[in-house]
Amino acid sequence: MLRVTVTSKALHVQYGLFGPTIPLEDIVEVKAGKYNWLKYGGKGIRFGLDGSTAYNMFGDKSEGVE
Asked: Which secondary-structure segment (H or E) carries 4?
């Protein structure tokens, strides 16, 4: 299960038992759309070679947030 919580100071992402807490001032850009399998290669919390992170889960019709 993917859980996302936003507070006045941070974005908390939890996929299963793990996930980051990201201070809002550290977020540069957010994109929602089709999940790029070639860039991230799988489901869950995935890291791109360009330093980006994607959050994706099964049953989402290949949509995700980067």
From this structure: strand 2-6
C-alpha to C-alpha distance for 26 and 42, rounded to whole angstroms: 25
pTM here?
0.65
**Average pLDDT per run of 10 along the chain, which is 66 residues long?**
89 85 92 78 81 74 70
Strand 21-23 to strand 10-15: parallel, antiparallel, or no bridges (unpaired)? antiparallel
Cα dist from 37 to 13, 46, 49, 58, whole Å: 20, 10, 13, 13
Cα separation, 8 vs 49, in Å, equals 30
Q: CA–CA separation, 39 vs 2, rounded Å?
A: 20
Q: Six-digit token pair at 13?
A: 């992402």
